[in-house]
Specification:
By secondary structure, the chain is α+β, with helices and mostly antiparallel strands. The protein folds into four domains: 175 residues, Sandwich (Jelly Rolls); 112 residues, Galactose-binding domain-like (Jelly Rolls, Sandwich); 341 residues, Glycosyltransferase, CATH 1.50.10.10; 63 residues, Sandwich (Maltose phosphorylase, domain 3), CATH 2.60.420. 24% of the residues lie in helices and 29% in strands. The strands form eight sheets. Strands 11, 12, 15, 16, 17, 18, 21, 22, 23 and 24 form a ten-stranded mixed beta sheet that branches. The protein has a seven-stranded antiparallel beta sheet with strand order 1-13-10-2-7-4-5. A hairpin with a 2-residue loop joins β35 and β36. α3 packs parallel to α5, α9 runs antiparallel to α10 and α9 packs across α11. The structure holds beta-D-glucopyranose.
Length: 724
Amino acid sequence: MTWYAEYITPTDSFGEIAPIFKKNFTCGKKIVKATLYITAIGVYEARINGSRVGDFIMAPGWTVYNKRLQYQQYDITPYIKEDNTFTVTVGKGWYRSRLAGWLRPVDEGSSLPPAVIAQIEIAYSDGTRETVATDNTWTAARSPILFCDIYDGVVYDATSTEENTDLPVKVFPLDKGNLIPQQGEKVIEQERLKPFRYIVTPKGERVIDFGQNLTGYIEFTVNAKAGDRVSISHAEILDKDGNFYNENYRSAKAKIEYICRDGKQTFKPTLTFFGFQYIRLDEFPGEVNPDDFTAIAVYSDMKKTGTLASSNSMLNRLFSNIFWGQKGNFLDIPTDCPQRDERLGWTGDAQVFVRTASYNYDVEKFFTKWLADLAAEQGEDGHVPHVIPNVLPDDSDVGTVSVKRSSAAWGDAAVICPWQIYLTYGDKTILENQYDSMCRWIDYITNNTKDAYLWTGGKHYGDWLALDGDIKSRRGASNEDFIASVYYAYSTSLVAKAGKVLGRDVTEYEKLYKKIVMQIRKAFPTYKTQTEHVLALYFDIAEDKKAVADSLAQMIRDNDYHLSTGFVGTPYLLHALSDNGYSDIAYSLLLQDTFPSWLFSVKMGATTVWEHWDGIREDGSVWDSMMNSYNHYAYGAVADWVYGVAAGIQTVENAPGFEKIVFAPTPDDRLDWLYASIETRFGTASSRWYRFEGKLRYEIVTPSPATVHIDGKTYHVERGTYIF
Ligand code: BGC
C-alpha cells in the first residue's frame, strides 16, 4: 500500500499521559467500503464514532520495530456515518516502555514520543475515493490514562475532562520503510474468569483469588464518589502464611491506580497486561463484592489443536498447567514469563517448548513472525541475541553471558524452531524464509570456537536452573563446552536436512556434522550429569547407547526416581529414556510427585508451570525472589513426550505436517487410560489406550496413511479409525 499519512505527535509533550489523537470528517456520499490502515509508536486503541475498531489488544504487537513495524488493516465500513469522529489512544507499549527492567533504571523510557500513523481510505458508490490521513490538521488531547506501560501497569483518572480539548499536533518525520502488513496472529481477549474466592489474609489484606494463574487484566465495577481511589496489586501466589506475595515481580510495579468519577462505573485497563492469579485491593471504596470482579485472559489468537487427558487427575492438572503456560506466554511473542520485569522473547525457552507449542495450538503464523524477527536481529557475524526482539543493552552481561555473544541452546532457536514448525505443519515456506538465518547461526559457531569441530570457549547459560550445580550460578553442573558442541552438531544436522528439503547443496553441512560428532566423541568420551547423558543419547552422540542409557537409568534410580536436569536436559530426558528401553523410568519421572518433579508443583497447587522445580518448597517457603516465576512454560516441554511417546503420535520427516503419521503408543501399568489428539492439517489424529476386560485396548484415529506399532507388531493403515 502507499502511505500518504505521516506520523503525528502532540506539538507540546504530554509527559507520561497517553495522548488521544482525533479527526472529524464528513462522508457526504454513499459508501462502498472504508478501510483503516494504522500503526503506532507504542500500542494503540482506535475508535470510530465511539465504537472500538477491531479487537486487537496491544496492537501493533511486538516486532523488531526499527526494521519491521506491523500495521493493521480494518474494515470500518459499518461504522461510517455522515459526520464521523475518529480517535486513537496511544500507550507506551513495548516500543516506549522501559524493558529488561532489571538492567535499566525504573525511570528510563524511550526517547521517542507517542505517535500514530493512520490512513482511512473511502470508496464511494459513484466510483470516487477519498483518503483521510494523519497530518497536522488532526488534534490531540490528554486522555484519562495518566500513565500506562508494560511492567508498571496503569494510572487512570475517570474524572478527567481533558479529552474534550483540541491541542495541536505536529508531523513527526519518521521513515516509513519499516512498515509491514500484520504478519502474526492478533492478540485478543479470551477467557473471562470469575473469582474463585475472596479472602482477608492474616495481614488483613483484601485478596481475590481467580483460581488460575493467567495473563491479561481484571475488570471491576465500583460504586463511588468522584475522587475515590481504587488501587490494585497483582500476585501469582500467597506466601507460606497465606499473605499476598509479589516480591518475585522484582521492579515491575504491576498496579492499577484508578480515580473514580461519581456513580457506578466499570473499568478495565487497556494497553497493558499483567501476569497474576491474585489481586490485592489496596484501596477500594465501599464493600467488596467478588461478583464485581472478572479476570480476562489475553493472548494470541491461536487455534487450539491439542488435547491431552488421562486417568490420573494430577497429570491432567499438569496438562492444563502446560496449556495455561502457553496461553500466558504467547502474547504476540513467546515470552519467558508474563509478570516480572522481563516478559521477553528468550530464545532458549521458545526452543525447548516449540514442539509442545505446535501440538497444543496452531502456532505457524505466530512463529513465522517471531522467526522473521529473529533473523532481523541476527548479527552480521550470525550471532543470535538472547531475546527476540532484542532489548538488552549492548554493554550488559545477562547472568554472566555477554549480550554480544550467543549462548548454546538459546541461539539454536534459529534452527530448531523453523525445523519444528516445518515438521508439524508441513509447509516448507518457513524453511525458505529462515534458511539463510539457520546457516548463519552454524557459521557463527564455526567462526567463534576455540577448537575446530567443537564449540569451546563460549559463554553460555549451561543447563540453566539444573539442580546439580552451584545453586548461585544457576547454570547446573553439566559441561558447557559439551552442551554447546552437541547443540552445534544437532543444529548442523537440521540445517543439512532443511537444505535438502529446499534442494540446496548441503554436502558441506553433512561433512561438518560428521566431523563434529567424531570430534565430540574424542573430546568428551564420558558423561557425568543426567543432562550430559540425555544429550549424548538424544543427539546420537553416544556410541554405546545401551551403556549410556543403563548409566542414566541407574543415576535416576540412585536419585530415588528424581531428575536433576535444567532447561537443556529436561525437554529430552524422558525421550532419552524411552528411546532406549526405559519407558518405565520415564513414566516414574512423569508420575513422581515429590521434589523435584512436574507433579510436585501440581501437589503444591500450581495452575501453570513453574520456572523452578522448587518455586515453592514443601514447607511453603519460596525459592528466591529474584528469579522465581510461577508461569514459565519451559518445563512444560514434557507434553511433547506425552503426545509423541505415551500416546505415540509422531510426525514423519519425509512426509511432514502429518501427511504420514507414525503411531507408537507406550502404555504404563500406573495409568488406566491415556488420550491425546492433534488437529493436523489433514484432520484430527488421536490415540487412546485403556484397559478393557483385563487387556489393553488401543484406539487410533488417523487422518492420513499411518504406520502403527503396537505390542511389537507393525500395521500399515489408511485414513480411518482402528481398534487394536
Ligand atoms: C529467563 C529465562 C531465560 C534465562 C536465560 C531468565 O531470566 O527468565 O527463562 O532463558 O534468563 O538464562
